Every structure is written in C-alpha cells, then in structure tokens.
Amino acid sequence: MKQGTFTIITLVGALVISSVFYWAILPIMDKGVEETPLIHQISLAGPVVPILLMLTLMLLTFVLERIFTLAKARGTSPLPTFFSHFTKSVREAKYEEASKLCDRQRGSAAAVLKAASDQYLRTKDDKAMSTEKRISETQRAINEARLLEVPFLERNLIALSTIASIATMVGLLGTTIGMIRAFAAMSTQGAPNAAELARGISEALVNTALGLFAAILGIVAYNFFVNKVDQFNYQIDEAAYLMIEILKEKEAA
Fold it and tell me: pLDDT tens-digit profile of 83-121?
C-alpha cells in the first residue's frame, strides 16, 4: 500500500472512531461529575477534543506500523547471527550459499547483502574486468539496494514528527477557546455565570492535557524509531563494509 493511501485511510478511520467515541459513546459513559468526574470533564471539553483523539489514534497506528515494519526489515533470524553466517560464507568464497542465506533471512539487510553477493557472483569469473572495477560494481550494487530500502525503513517518521508538533498547537487552540468561554462568563452583567466559567476553565485544561499527552507520546515515539533506524542502517553499513574488505583481500591474494 502506498504511503499516501495509508495515511489517508488512517486519518479518515481515526476521525470516524474519535467522532463516534466523543459524541455517541462518551455521553453514555458520563454518569455525572460525582461518579465519573474525568469522563464528565472530557465530555464537556468542546469540539477540539475529537481532533486530539484523532491525532492520538493516528499516532498509535503509526507506532504499530513502525513496530511491524522494523520487525519485518530485520528478517527471520537475529541480525548478528545472520551477519555472522553471511560473513563466514563470503570468507570461504561460498557466494551462492551467501545468496541463499539472504533468501532465507529476508528483510532489508538481507536484500542489500544479496544484491552485493549476486553482483560479485556475476563478475568474479570475468577475466576482462579488473579487480577495482569488480569491487566498484559490487559497491554500486550495495548503494543502489540501500537507496531502495531506506525509504521503507524511514516511512511514517515524518508523520510521527508532524503529529507531535501540531498536537501541542491543537491543544493550545482548545485552551484558547476554553479561556474565551470563561472570560465571556465573567463578563456577564451582575454575578459571573459560575457554571459557564467552570466549564470554560475545564475545557481549557482538558484540551491542554490531551494536546500535551499526544505531543509527548509523538516525540518519544519519533526519537525511539529514528534511533532504531539509525542503528539498523549502521549494522547494514558495517556488514557491507566487512564484505567489501573480505572481497578485496581475496582479490589481492
């Protein structure tokens, strides 16, 4: 599924679920300020709340997508084990076995190393090709494979960052609307409307809390997954570099 399509489906689905929850389910759960004070305050916090709930649901969806995607990118067995077996096969000049190891491992790291081993396998018996050219072609295959895999690894990271940024601003919008309601209640002639004043302050605080919750969750998730992707890329680079060095040693021998 294309990233744009996935984002639109997630946005529409989250908007529908949050709207149904806020306007249909939450009033049923609200038993009054005495029995369910938190639910009661949220149910009175205004139309910005469904937007904040939508952002939170989108955030959780992207987090789950990242977890499944990175697990798929790692492949079927732990990467250190796969790299160890792959390097051993290359060191023993068993390039076909190394390629089969990549087929069994699957994932992004295996795709990059398979591209390198297949490229070297195609050119290793070509006597007309120089050693430098053979190594250069293998390195080029690694670079091209990485260019194809990096967008897959970094998918939806920008969406996580964007949600973390705008959640605070949406929460601030709800806060502002709540404060406008509170000041409007205070500006009535005679005694201030206590119920409207309390509702306005409550609306401001609930929207602030929900906006901060979504923003904090988004920032933590974004930094966590960026770190995971960086580590993953570093491991791939390290394995590819080791493979190239082994091939250079063999060509020089």
Answer: 999 999 999 988 889 999 999 998 899 999 999 999 988
Of residues 133, 139, 88, 142, the one with CA closest to residue 110: 142
Query: Which residues, 6+ apart, have CB-to-CB distance to 117 below 8 Å?
Result: 90, 95, 98, 99, 102, 243
Q: CA distances (Å), 228 to each of 66, 106, 160, in order?
A: 10, 18, 14
pLDDT tens digits along 138-152: 999 999 999 998 888
Measured from the Cβ of residue 198, the count of other Cβ atoms closer than 10 Å reads 15
CA distance linking residue 207 with residue 26, whole number of Å: 16
The tens digit of pLDDT for each residue in 151-160 reads: 888 888 999 9
- The pTM score is 0.84
Count CB-CB contacts under 10 A for residue 22.
21
pLDDT tier, 201 (very low <50, low <70, confident <90, very high otherwise): confident
The first and second tokens of residue 60, run together, are: 């959780």
Give the Cβ contact number of residue 183 at 10 Å.
12
Nearest to 112 by CA among 81, 76, 141, 153: 141
Reduced to 3 states (helix: H, G, I; strand: E, B; else coil), residue 156 is coil
Cα–Cα dist 78/145, whole Å: 20
